[in-house]
Amino acid sequence: GQLSQFLAMTGPASMLLETSTASTTMSGVLGGTANLSELVEQAGIDGSIVGATDLSINIDVAPLPGLDEPGRVFLSGGGFYMTNTGTDAEQAAAWEFMKFVNEVEQQKTMHLKGSYLPINPAVRDDPEVQSVWQNDAAGQWLATAYGQIAGIDTSFPGPVIGPFTEQRDAFNESLERVLLGGEDPAEVLADTEATLNEALEDYADANF
Questions:
Q1: More exposed terminus of the chain, fewer Cβ within 10 Å: N or C?
Q2: Is there a contact between 54 and 160 (Cβ–Cβ < 8 Å)?
């Protein structure tokens, strides 16, 4: 469902910054086990994209580029949280579920089938996971991503980025307006700048 993947397939891009959870999908498309036309339809993108079914491309991964050195990344994505607003029974059930989800077998399934990086370190040493990391394309990509997570510098917390959700929405809307709507880039840029400035002012006023 990521537009940047289609840009790579059609030629305008040669490097993408992508989530690790795209690994099994992209491997399936390139290996013929996933139907690209169905992915295009699910993404709501017009099937007339030129070259969208030309898979004569070579894709590999590398550590995330950086100003000082590659691979300096931060944890992001979904998370499991348990609140204290439920009943004692609900909280107990939630805790049991969280323990279940983080057991090795469940973490393996999420990793090998859904490309999520495991947080249980025992998964890393599992023979099946090691075999996939060494012998499967998606597994090799996931091993690269996991290596970056394993090397996170806890004393390097990352930037304060302000109103992230508003920024992301503005960027996504601007890309869609230019790439899918054919609008004038200069006009879209001006609108996006105004939207981002307003979001930054609101963020500053809220004193976060």
A1: C
A2: no
